[in-house]
Structure formats: C-alpha cells, structure tokens
Amino acid sequence: MQNRAVIFDDVFSKALQSLQCNAVDTKLAQVAALRADWLDGKLACSGSTTPVLPIPVPGRPEKPVLVSALLVEKRKLSTPEGRAALIHSLAHIEFNAINLALDAVYRFRDLPQPYYGDWLQVAAEEAAHFSLLRAHLRTLGFNYGDFSAHNGLWDMAVQTDADPLVRMALVPRVLEARGLDVLPAIMQKLKSAGDPAAAAMLAIIHADEIGHVAIGNRWYAYLCNERGLEPVATFRKLLREYNAPKLRGPFDTVSRQAAGFSAAEMKMLEDFAE
Hints:
Helices cover 65% and strands 1% of the residues. It has 274 residues and is mainly α. It has one domain (74-272): Ferritin, core subunit, four-helix bundle (Ferritin). It has helices spanning 11-20, 24-39, 80-107, 113-139, 152-159, 164-192, 196-227, 231-241, 253-258, 263-272, and strands at 9-10, 43-44. It contains ten helices and two strands; from the N terminus they run βααβαααααααα. The chain has a two-stranded parallel ribbon with strand order 1-2.
C-alpha cells in the first residue's frame, strides 16, 4: 500500500475563515478548533497561497448596531440595565479582540512559528472571555447585540494592516494595555454595585490580558531588533505618526511592567499622557 503524503491546511486560510465568519457561536467554535489543530501540529505556516487582502469589515453579527463612541449607551451601575450595558461594552471589546488576534495571524507572513502560536492563544483566550461576559449578560436579562457599540478597535486594525511592527506597537501596547489600567477600577465599581460575579470574571480577564500585552511587547521588541530600531524612540514616533488614541493616566505600573513595559517606556508614557 502506497503511503500518502500528509497535506496540512495552512494557518492563514483557516484564520481568514474564522475572521470572516459572521455567526458568533460558529466563530467561537472555529477559533477553538483552529487553536487545537495548531497545537496538534496540523497547520502549516509556510508556502501559503492565500493572498493577503485588506479587511475593512471583519465577520460580525448584524447586532450590535455600531455608532460613534460618544453615542454608546452609558447607564448607572446601580441598575441591572446599567451593569448590563457595561458588561455588553466589555463583551464587544473581547469580540473585536478575537478578530484582531485572527487578523494578526492571517495578515503578517514570514514571521517565526511561535508568533502564530502566540496569537492563536490570544484568539482562543479572547473567545473564552467573550463567552464568560455573554453568559453573565444573559443572567441580567440581556444578550450580546442588545446595546449599541463602537468600532474603535477595528479602525486601528485597518490603520495598522501594512506592517506588523506598527500593529504590535499600537494595538496590544496602546489599546489592549489600556485595559490593564482601567479594569481594576471597573472591578471595584462592580463589587460596590453588588455584582461580585462580574468582578471575579474581570479579574480572570485582567490576568490573561497581562499575558496578551506581553505577547505584543515581545513581538514589538523582536521586530525592532530585527530592523535595528530603538524601541522607545520608535514607539514615540509611531504614536505621533498614526495619531494613536490619547494615552491617559493613571497607568497601572505593576500590571504594565508584568506585561513587559520597561522603566524607560513607563517614563515615556507618563511624559506622553494627558
């Protein structure tokens, strides 16, 4: 009997399939399967014939309705609806983060194999975060899509789709790192509002997000080193050049340092912050 060559799916086409999927539960299942296949050695990250295309709109359900960030519902946490609106906004961030991680895999080729494993791990963990938050939202009598949301995270993905160094600098190190600063205060507010279960979920998410920002920092440092660039000066330049979201203090120094920000970078952030 003649041996058949093993044919590997390429990780890029699989990531694109998940990225473009509109159905929430299908996307979650695809992300879990994609990570499992990667860990089982069933996916190749070389020799892909999948072209790299711009993706102005990733796969997402019809709801939530997307509006300006200024128009997203804000309600008092003292009411179940107010807590639900907050949990919904966090779930939407996590859903966008799934797509961002998948795009980081799909878009940027010819990077070391561990890069793809790192971002598939992020995608799977963001999917788990979304599932936790959606489940809690349902206990409050609401579901994902019941409130409006904004598209700020994906807007930055589009702006940074030409260069992995720019993506690593401005998405994990700016947008996701912001979560490290604000989540502890949100946890405390939820506890005070009588929702310790939500606060406990955010503690899990906060711990994982330190790891996600660390992954962004690791690959930002790798790409700077590969190109002979000084990381702090390059970061400052990119913040200005791409009109990145304003850096606002106070910063959670302990969490940021755990995620790999150096003392020099923290000093730069303090100088840059409004």
